[in-house]
Amino acid sequence: MKTVDLSACPVCSKLKIDDEGAFLEDLKCSIKTYAKNELILRQGDVCDALYMLTLGSVKTEMITDNGNILGIEIIKAPRPLAPAFVFSDNNRFPVDVTALEEVEIMKIPKAEIMRLMMTNPDFMSSFMTHNANRTQFLTNRLQLLSIKTIKGKVAHFLLENSAVDNKTFIINRNQTELADFFGVARPSLARCLSEMVQDGIISINKKEYRILNSKKLRELLI
Amino acid sequence: MKTVDLSACPVCSKLKIDDEGAFLEDLKCSIKTYAKNELILRQGDVCDALYMLTLGSVKTEMITDNGNILGIEIIKAPRPLAPAFVFSDNNRFPVDVTALEEVEIMKIPKAEIMRLMMTNPDFMSSFMTHNANRTQFLTNRLQLLSIKTIKGKVAHFLLENSAVDNKTFIINRNQTELADFFGVARPSLARCLSEMVQDGIISINKKEYRILNSKKLRELLI
DNA sequence: ACGAGAGTGTAACAATTGTTACACTTTTAT
DNA sequence: ATAAAAGTGTAACAATTGTTACACTCTCGT
What we know:
Two copies of one chain form a homodimer.
Chain A lengths: L19 H7 L3 E5 L4 E3 L7 E7 L1 E7 L5 E8 L2 E3 L14 E4 L3 E7 H10 L1 H26 L3 H12 L6 E3 L4 H8 L3 H13 L3 E4 L2 E4 L2 H6 L3
Antiparallel strand pairs in A: 1-8, 2-7, 3-6, 3-8, 4-5, 4-7, 9-11, 10-11
Chain A binds a DNA duplex (30 and 30 nucleotides) through helix 6.
């Protein structure tokens, strides 16, 4: 059974491997499966290995001190989960990870990662780049959270997600998830969205969003 | 002139180098100095090299779309600035960096970093760990920002900064900087602080903060 | 096709925070 | 030493967001 497509993985794609099967057998790793909605990793868990999502998709969310949920992101296989934290001094998971469907996770010991990095320059480079991109993602998240008004967050989010040429796009989150993502209350988000629709700035049809007036949308950032 | 103490640097400390001088001469890098309050790096600048702060201290802050300032951290030499971003796909600086005093910065090309990593396992390990710790720092920042009430942020911050045994400590930020750090308005922070003092939860004397009632402080997180 | 449950729209009201303004204190530079 | 600048306390008011509640629509499984 081939469960992993290494070439699609951001940190493994550059590996020059003759025999993928042999490579994976060589790797001292264990594989575990999880059912839909199962909690895979808990915020605060010790992170002594690299967890590679090899099949399915998961969501990560942060539980704040006050019990609020802050949605972080949805991750689809194949991709490593929180790869940076394997190497941190206080190596604990920063988020809860929950299975969105049937999921398969490969657990690779830290020592194995070290070995791969030392013997394989391309792997090292990919791993570094991937981690750097993750940091950039976190920075963007920080930027989004630091916008104080909900309309500003929405504007930032929509402008970021809209291609230059295409002003219509699908957002694969329902309103509740979107509110979690922004760290605001659901009815507050609904109010802002409906006001923006009334003002002719955007239109919403189910999960399809369209920017009608990007000038006004940009003004909401000010 | 010896400007750098490698042993104090989080990513260079483990380097086994006989002749520090020769090592630094070998490194294809350039050194530049900046005056107090000078803007060293601007958010969005292309980041094609590792910037190592070798002397002095700087502050980093993020300018959000709406022009607000979000204070991130104060960095003292020796330490690399935004090391993760050298390797990111979209390698641009995430923050403004401003000199807090006379500052010296060493610019090391990306290729040199790669060479060091490949030839020096300890350097690689330190670099990885440092980047991981930076990610963890960003995650903590994210957690702080996701707390919605100002008192909650203050409580989180104070509890995080207070040692277990010592309930008194110095915060080297004035009220304005603290407000920027929390991403709130200065008078709002002042109001919360004075209420917390009135309620006998904390006491403040200039920059010395003391926790008087840690139980009540913890309740503010709920 | 139909009922249960999830998701959405919206309203009234409460709570928190932001804004602006100004007096006052402390620090810094000359 | 003294003026200028930076930092702090605080008040009135505006604006935004959260809370709670409920009706309505849509989706999905049986």
